[in-house]
Amino acid sequence: MxxxxxxxxxxxxxxxxxxxxxxxxxxxxxxxxxxxxxxxKESRQEVRNLVILYKKEIFSREL
Length: 63
Description:
Layout: E1 2-5, E2 11-14, E3 19-24, E4 28-32, E5 37-40, H1 44-61
Antiparallel strand pairs: 1-2, 3-4, 4-5
Protein name: Flagellar FlbD family protein
Keywords: Cell projection, Cilium, Flagellum
Pfam family, one: FlbD
């Protein structure tokens, strides 16, 4: 799970495994596999980095 910020400054936790795509147009739009879309303050690169950190944390626990 990753924490992101909506445009109204509320925090939201998203299941990183359900992210289908992340686009900037100019706002960052996260599209989930369900088709739901979330507009967030974080950049596309920041979302990518959050997902990478989350995955590293999960996989390091499995060892």
